[in-house]
Every structure is written in C-alpha cells, then in structure tokens.
Amino acid sequence: MKYERVRNFVNGSFKEVSSQRTLPVISPTDGSLLAEMPCSTAADLDEAVQAAKAAFPAWSKTPIKERVQVFFRYKYLLEQHLQGLAALVSEENGKTISEAIAEVEKCIELTEFATSLPQLIAGEVLEVSAGVECRTSHVPLGIVASIVPFNFPAMVPNWTIPNAIALGNCLIMKPSEKVPLSLGIIARLLKEAGLPNGVLNIVNGDSEIVNAICDHPDIEAVSFVGSTKVARIVYQRATQHLKRCLALGGAKNHLLVLPDAKPGMTAQNVAASMSGCAGQRCMAASAMIGVGDVNHIVDLVCEEARKIVPGQNLGAVISKESKERIEKYITEAEAQGARILVDGRGVQVAGKENGTYVGPTVIDYVTADMAVAREEIFGPVISIMRTDTVDEALRIENANPYGNAASVFTQNGGMARYIAERASAGMIGVNVGVPVPREPFSFGGWNESKFGVGDITGKSSIEFWTKLKKSTTKWNPEEGVNWMS
C-alpha cells in the first residue's frame, strides 16, 4: 500500500477503527492499491456524534464573525496546499491533474463564500406597533451529516463543510469508500486553521454507515450527493426518522443544438461537457438533440472528441466495473442500430495497462427508447438524437425523469428564451455546456435529480442549515395593549 490504513477523524484526532472488515482503495489511473479503508460500525458513528454533541454548545454560541475566521485561515491553507491536494484527488479519483487543480480551486471559492455569511445571515428587525419590535435570527440546527460521492473527493465535501460549520453546526462527514483519502487532508487543514475539536468528524464506511446516519436520533439533518437510486432511499429513510434531508441524485442532461449555433464554439462545449472528469459528473452532457440540419456541427464534435486522449487530457473512470458498464451501453446502442462515430471502447494507456480508461465516444442516430438515451451512463459518452422541431426536442427533454441541467446552443435570443423557459431542469445554459452556477448562486436540480426542499450550497443554503427564530419584544407598558401588541 502506498498510504497507511485510512482512519476516522473524531474529536480532532485521527482514530483507528477496530473493524476487521476493510475495502481496498484502488487508483483508477493504474490499478495500484493506495490504502485499505476499514468499514466503521454504528458504534463508531455514535462516538463521532457524541464528540460533536460535546462541541456544539460552545461552537454554536461563538459569534459567526468569529466562526468564519477559521475559514479565512482555511482558505489560505487550501491555496498553500493546492498542488498536493490536487495530486491526491487525481490519484484516488482518476481525473487529470488540471481537473483536480480546478476542483481544489472550486473548494477555495466555496470557502471564500462562507466567509461572507456574516453579511448574509443578518436577521430582520421591525417596529410593528408602538414600542413593539419583531426580530428574526438564524439558529444552528445542531449535529448534521453529509454523505458525499466519489466523483469530487474535495469539492463536494466543501459544498457542505464551510457553510454548515460557519452557520454554527457540528458536522459528521461520510466520504465515498472509493475516495476517502482527500478528506483526511481537508481535516488536517481545518484543524490547522483552528477549528475546535469535535466540530468536524469523519466516519469512513459503506452503506452500514449511511443507514446509521439516517437512523441516529441525535443527527438533525442529512445531505446526500450520489445516484438517484440511493438518493431516494436516503431521503425516505432520513425523513422517516423526522430529519431534515436534501438528497441530490443523478442526471441525464440534454444539449439542444440549433442549426444557427456557432459551430466551433458549440463543438468545443459539447465535447468538453461530455468528457470532462471522464463524464463522471452530474452536470455532464449526456444527450445532444440536433434540431434540423446540424451535420456540420456533429462533424466538428467528432473532431474535438478525437483530440481528447485517455491518459493525457482524459482521466480514468473510477473502477473496472464502471468501465465495463459504460462499454456495455455503447455496445448495446450499436446493436440497436445507432452509429458509433467515435469509439472509446477497449482503451489502454501505455504504462498504465491496469488503469480503467474509456475513450471519448460519440453515438449518432440514437432513438429516445434506447438505454443510452434514457439512463445515466456516467462516462465520456454523448448520445445524439435528431428532431425536426424545437418542440419535438423539448418533448424529449421533458420526458427525461431527471432534471439537473439543460442547455441550448443558438444565436437566436428569442429561441434561447423559449427553450430555457420550457426545459424541465433546475440549471439552464445558453451556449454553455456545463451550466454550473457560481457562488452565491446555489447548485440544485429538479425532478428525480433532487429529493427535498432547498439547497446545500450558495446563499439559499442558509435556510437548509439553520432554523428561523422569531422574537417579539415589548418594553413600554404605558402604551397599553391592543390587537397588535
């Protein structure tokens, strides 16, 4: 093993887990064994929760202007350790080093936003009657938990860590069992930044810990990011135990390409959107709908796709199982009559023969009933469907059960607005292949891409991570009492 056995982070210290049940942490880049991760038990989770409970009274009573000082220092430390953290993200996840650097830069942006929370969380005060004042304030929930996926080992944890903690909560973090290493570095940086013991705790494990988080009586809220299948289960189980829950699931993002779209820009955006992070992101372009004659743009998409080389500017997919599943989708589509214009099956990278790579793949003449048109592939694959009208394209997009993102490529402003208003997705792009909002705007989809109300990022995350207290005060008895007081 390249790294020591993974440990939990509880009450400010890394702690060995007694469980003998372990899972290997494999680098997708070359198949090497990076570490072993022990599978924590419900008892291990409870130990972390108790540490968080002990830390909560003092942390929640610390003024928010003081709490965010930790994140000013944490931001500085992220900047100082950017290269090292990015290298680890690349190693355990498989993405290219440039993508990993961009991921850590996004962590820095998320942290920067959290430092602005004192200005955003200020309550409202109004004299509602003579001498009678009403006031609102945001109060921390208590102990909260975040369950994060493999595709962004650093960024998605930082969707929740800065905001949830700066708002006064104590957090239990459960990383993906496939990529548990980066979060250990993040814990060390937060401790160095001055975060008090017990405010952040990391519990490693598999589905047993996910279930235990949903069931634990002292956890007030749960956020989840992962597949729609698991997101639905987590939401149902957590809310069954009367917890606040926001569970973000998968996607099948459609790009509508009109004949008047700028050919070069569109092709570059489509190729980058479908292949970035090896297609393992819930905002990746998965389906392109060509409206009318867009053959010239499809040709350019293929040219751009052929410039994307596994092991150079295209990273690996997370596991052998993922590679096999993605290639099965491509083979099935070909058997059903689709045309493979660029084929990424059977890829091997010299010197990294045990790496799990899938090359960029462009599939044309896909029909809406094919699995590649309906299901989330989570790989560098774009399925192209053809329609004669915009309304027909919108019917295909609207029939998709997911709702993370949709984009339109056109130079017609009226048509762009027409499509943007009618696409059934929470995040819309116009001539943008990956319409991820930047802070202070929040990330979040619709339909089966999201279960629960609110957001865990951006300004609107304040409502998820806090509860609102309303106070009414009267200090002038001489005014008497009326219906307003």
UniProtKB/TrEMBL annotation:
Uppermost EC category: oxidoreductase
Domain Aldehyde dehydrogenase span(s) in chain numbering: 19-469
Coiled coil ranges: none
MF terms in GO: methylmalonate-semialdehyde dehydrogenase (acylating, NAD) activity
Alphabetic keyword roster: NAD, Oxidoreductase
Listed GO biological process terms: L-valine catabolic process; thymine catabolic process
Transmembrane segments: none
InterPro entries: Ald_DH/histidinol_DH, Ald_DH_C, Ald_DH_N, Aldehyde_DH_dom, MeMal-semiAld_DH
A Pfam family reported for this protein in Swiss-Prot or TrEMBL: Aldedh
SUPFAM superfamilies reported in the protein's UniProt record: ALDH-like (SSF53720)
Protein name (database record): methylmalonate-semialdehyde dehydrogenase (CoA acylating)
Organism: Chitinophaga pinensis
Lineage of source species: Bacteria, Pseudomonadati, Bacteroidota, Chitinophagia, Chitinophagales
